[in-house]
Amino acid sequence: MRVVCLDLEGVLVPEVWLGVADETKLDGLRLTTRDMPDYAELMAHRLKILDENDIGIDLIQNVISTLQPLPGAKEFLDRLRGEAQVIILSDTFYEFATPLMEHLDRPTIFCHYLDVQDGRISGYRLRTDDHKTKTVNALKELNFTVAAAGDSYNDVGMIQAAHVSSFFCAPDRVLADFPDVAHTQDYDLLADYLLNTPAGA
Predict the structure, then answer these.
(1) Which one of the listed residues 7, 15, 95, 151 is annotated catalytic?
(2) Residue 41 among the catalytic residues
(3) Which CATH number fits domain 16-64: 3.40.50.1820, 2.60.120.10, 3.55.50.30, 3.90.1470.10?
(4) For all residues of the chain together, what is the average pLDDT?
(5) What does each C-alpha distance from 63 to 5, 24, 68 come to in angstroms?
(6) Residue 190 in 3-state DSSP?
């Protein structure tokens, strides 16, 4: 049995924080895991900007309510789910991801939780450190063949751990740092690769 593990933002849906940056005109919120490998540092940066500019969760959720899956993403996901088990592994939060999952027919997603007090985001709770890599390794321990795809630094662990893996629409800086990882910008090619490449090929 093959399990396909996918990142969410940048692979299936737009980057939430880029949408928030567009809405608020705060360029500091344009930094994502494509830019900063250290997730804790990135989130500290984001929370500081939110606090300094009095931005609450309502504004972010309003932005999220306008987002739709990337063109072709729903069909790509439907094909994968027809031939394999699929798990979305994301460093977003359930408070952000839930409406996006509705557009994708509610696939299984593992992500994190926000701490919200009086409408303000005061912190966050990780499911566990490096949960993407740990999930892939746990699935391998259960004798699944695991394929994985993502676009950012925080996807590298699961990509390196999976039997079959590829970057999807990753930025040049990520590709330059990991030149041995396969890369595509086409959903059909990615689906073929993830579903049909033999483990260890």
Answers:
(1) 7
(2) no
(3) 3.90.1470.10
(4) 94
(5) 26, 10, 11
(6) helix
Buried b (16+ CB within 10 A) or exposed e, 111-149: bbebebeeeebeebeeeeeebbbbbbbebbeeebbbbbb
- Please work out, in degrees rounded to the nearest 5, the angle formed at the alpha carbon of residue 190 by the alpha carbons of 11 and 142: 85
pLDDT per residue over 93-136, tens digit each? 999 998 899 999 999 999 999 999 999 999 999 999 999 999 99
CATH of domain 2-12+70-113+125-196: 3.40.50.1000
What is the domain partition of the chain in residue ranges? 2-12+70-113+125-196, 16-64
pLDDT digits (tens, 9 = 90+) for 40-84: 999 999 999 999 999 999 999 999 999 999 999 999 999 999 999
CA-closest candidate to residue 5, choices 147, 110, 140: 147
7 catalytically annotated: yes
**pLDDT exceeds 70 at position 201:** no
Structure tokens at 32: 């994502």
Please give the single-letter amino acid code of residue 181: V
165 three-class SS: strand
Which of 9, 91, 95, 151 is flagged as catalytic?
A: 9
